[in-house]
Amino acid sequence: MGFSNLKIPKICEQCEKPFEAKTMTTRFCSHLCADKNYKNRKKKEKELKEREKVLEKYVDKIAVLQLREFISVGEAVILFGISKSTIHRLIKRKVIRSVNLGERLTRINKLELEKLFSPIIIDEKEKQESELRKKYKKEDCYTISQVSEKFGANPSTVNRVIDKFKIPKEKIGNFVYVPKSEIDKIFIGK
Ligand SMILES: [Zn+2]
Fold first, then answer.
1. Per-residue pLDDT tens for 62-74?
2. What is the average per-residue pLDDT within 2-21?
3. How far apart, in Å, are the Cα atoms of 53 and each of 29, 42, 65, 114, 154?
4. Rounded distance from Cα 10 to ligand 1 centre (Å)
5. What fold is seen in the domain 124-189?
6. Ligand 1 centre and the CA of 7: distance in Å?
7. For residue 157, how far is its CA from the centre of ligand 1 (angstroms)?
8. Could you read off the pLDDT of 176-189 as tens digits, one per residue?
9. Ligand 1 center to residue 164 CA distance, Å?
10. For the chain, what are the domain ranges?
11. How far is the CA of 36 from the centre of ligand 1 (A)?
């Protein structure tokens, strides 16, 4: 009797249809679904990265645009991370209305775009947190669990200390990063 005889009822994570898996770790019903899922994930990662790039570049401008009701096509690109041609297509198809104030002076109502796309959100907190990346390199930072391990404090204590001393922190991927220098000052100096 080998493992190959195993039949584990599962739901495919891509097409959501039930199938019988041969191993516990199988997530998809077929190579096709596995491949589709991989491609989707890569696409999402790419979109996220592009969004982040826009965010870093326009951090101050976005904060201003968030307060405005009518924005230009170029500003919509910045604020929503979509392309100019997408916006022009939507205007042409009358999906969104535009006001033409002259050549190259098309203005779009921001609310209409918000119904279609999620804007790049920056609140004061996020703005402050992205400062972390400007000031510190990744290797100059600990993750919360690294702090916890190094100083023998449980993660909730670590988080309390971080908040109490207003240490800059930032979530990158699955981890929250904090600058080593700030942490060492507090935990070693204690
Ligand atoms: Zn499937």
1. 878 878 888 999 8
2. 85
3. 35, 17, 17, 20, 34
4. 10
5. Multidrug-efflux Transporter Regulator; Chain: A; Domain 2 (1.10.1660)
6. 16
7. 43
8. 889 999 999 888 87
9. 48
10. 59-116, 124-189
11. 9
